[in-house]
Specification:
By secondary structure, the protein is α/β, with parallel strands linked by helices. It folds into two domains: 198 residues, 3-Layer(aba) Sandwich (Rossmann fold), CATH 3.40.50; 104 residues, Orthogonal Bundle (Tyrosyl-Transfer RNA Synthetase), CATH 1.10.240. It is 47% helix and 11% strand. It has 13 helices and eight strands. The strands form two sheets. The protein has a six-stranded mixed sheet with strand order 1-6-5-2-3-4, with helices on one face. Strands 7-8 form a two-stranded antiparallel ribbon. Strand 2, helix 3 and strand 3 form a beta-alpha-beta unit. The N and C termini lie far apart (43 Å). Beta-(2-naphthyl)-alanine binds next to strand 2 and helix 8. InterPro entries: aa-tRNA-synth_I_CS, aa-tRNA-synth_Ic, Rossmann-like_a/b/a_fold, Tyr-tRNA-ligase, Tyr-tRNA-ligase_3, Tyr-tRNA-ligase_arc/euk-type, Tyr-tRNA_synthase. Pfam families: tRNA-synt_1b.
């Protein structure tokens, strides 16, 4: 795989392809970042962007993970002290998940976001941006239905962070795209450069296949899950015998979340996938890539129940090191 394909594999969106192609010509020593509002425990959404960071490390990028404590505070996620404590625990869980500790720089937002220069730049962007523009940028990230002033400031600071952390590439879930578009508009007003972004997909709700998988409502998978939890959640997941389900009775688009997890979590981290089956049901199956597994589900060769059993095994392997770290953190 060439560097451009590695940088963009499994991405939902690349902004812009030409800018990322230019980076891919010589990725060594380039800096890519992702930011997270600290929460106590990594969930499958964090793990998905982390898989992209692991791809980027392999391509030669240095990785910067912003533990966005001030942003979480502005987005009503708790007291500043609570958020600070969770940031430390999250860092350890990322390393347990497989990010190379020597090649990953962890930064707290509050390390530089309270400096005079940064604060004055934030105010300069507040002057450049209408409230409605800021609200629009925040719509997919905002907690609560009634936007607060803090939540309008949030995307402006996220835009500034791209400059202050001296980054070449921004990575985030597709829910960050409106903030990144705002950043492209406002950074040049302060004579700062625009940087490209790679957006990872948002997976479908595990039980219905409709809408987003979310940690705030519905079932998600996290690093706290025991093997039994994982097995139960995966067994209850929506998995029709096709990669491309029909819309539901109300006409809502549906995805197959079991296959999505194979595609975005399992195949990027394992050379091949073995589905164990008793001899009488045809014996074990081995897949080298996602498409061949999805084709077998489509054709009926691989039954959803067998696919689910294998998915729980591989998820358990991915989650286990973080689960042990969390147990240590709590003891
Ligand atoms: C991501 C977040 C907050 C600040 C950032 C600054 C620079 C780059 C990425 C950042 C968190 C993100 C979330 N908005 O929704 O978790």
């Amino acid at each position: 795989m060439d560097d451009y394909d590695l940088i963009t594999r499994n991405a939902a969106e690349v902004v812009t392809e030409d800018e990322v192609r230019a980076l891919a010509e010589d990725p060594d020593g380039k800096r890519a970042y992702v930011g997270y509002e600290p929460s106590g425990v990594l969930h499958i959404g964090h793990m998905l962007t982390a898989n992209k960071l692991i791809d980027l490390q392999e391509a030669g990028f240095e990785i910067v993970i912003l533990l966005a404590d001030v942003h979480a505070y502005l987005n009503d996620k708790g007291t500043f002290e609570e958020i600070r404590e969770t940031a430390d625990r999250m860092r350890e869980q990322f390393v347990a998940y497989g990010l190379d500790e020597d090649d990953t720089e962890f930064v707290l937002g509050s390390d530089y976001q309270l400096d005079e220069e940064y604060v004055l730049d934030t105010h300069a962007l507040e002057l450049e941006t209408t409230l409605s523009r800021a609200e629009r940028a925040m719509s997919e990230i905002q907690r609560g239905s009634n936007p607060k002033v803090s939540q309008a400031v949030y995307p402006l600071m996220q835009a500034l962070d791209i400059e202050y952390l001296d980054l070449d590439l921004a990575v985030g879930g597709l829910d960050q795209r409106k903030v990144h578009m705002l950043a492209r508009e406002v950074l040049p007003t302060l004579d700062y450069e625009v940087r490209p972004a790679v957006h990872t997909p948002i997976l479908a709700d595990l039980t219905s296949g409709v809408g987003k998988m979310s940690s705030s409502d519905g079932v998600t998978i996290s690093m706290e899950d025991t093997e039994a939890d994982l097995r139960e959640k995966v067994n209850k997941a929506f998995c029709p015998p096709t990669a491309d389900p029909e819309p539901d009775a109300e006409g809502n688009e549906r995805e197959n979340p079991v296959l999505q997890i194979f595609k975005y979590h399992v195949f990027p981290r394992f050379e091949s996938v073995v589905v164990e089956r008793p001899e009488e049901y045809g014996g074990d199956l081995e897949y080298d890539d996602y498409d061949s597994l999805a084709d077998d589900v489509d054709s009926g060769e691989l039954h959803p129940a067998d696919a689910k059993g294998a998915l729980a095994d591989y998820l358990d392997e991915l989650v286990a090191p973080g689960r042990e770290k969390i147990a240590e953190q709590r003891s």
